[in-house]
Design goal:
This protein is mainly α. It is built from 5 helices and no strands.
């Protein structure tokens, strides 16, 4: 596994920890964005581990994740979870300010499992 993949996963874990701190301080919007960023970093690490290429922007990440899911069926379980974080945490909560406490907290907390699953799929 490359050093860059390890660094991306470490960054994802750090962002997740920041999201948890934000939740504890009742900063839902910030927690949502940190959890989304953690998701994106973990996804990019997975993509880099499987393809040797690092996506440069989110639409490229989406496309490459879909391609991975076609090649590796076990990755399919991440795609919906990726999209819900992008749409709900990043779009609705962070950008629009629509942050219902229960659903935001649940998705932020579940980001830890997303990172773990991405690491497992990257064979770390």
């Amino acid at each position: 596994m490359s050093i860059k993949v390890d660094e991306l996963f470490k960054d994802a874990e750090n962002l997740y920890e920041e999201a948890i701190k934000d939740l504890k301080a009742n900063r839902l919007r910030k927690a949502a964005e940190n959890a989304w960023c953690a998701t994106l970093r973990a996804t990019n690490a997975l993509i880099l581990s499987k393809t040797g290429k690092l996506p440069e922007y989110v639409p490229e990440t989406r496309n490459m994740l879909e391609d991975l899911a076609m090649k590796y069926p076990e990755v399919e379980g991440l795609t919906g979870r990726f999209y819900t974080r992008e749409t709900f945490l990043h779009g609705h909560c962070f950008y629009l300010g629509i942050c219902p406490e229960g659903p935001v907290k649940r998705r932020v907390i579940e980001t830890k499992q997303y990172i773990e699953d991405a690491k497992r799929l990257a064979h770390l």
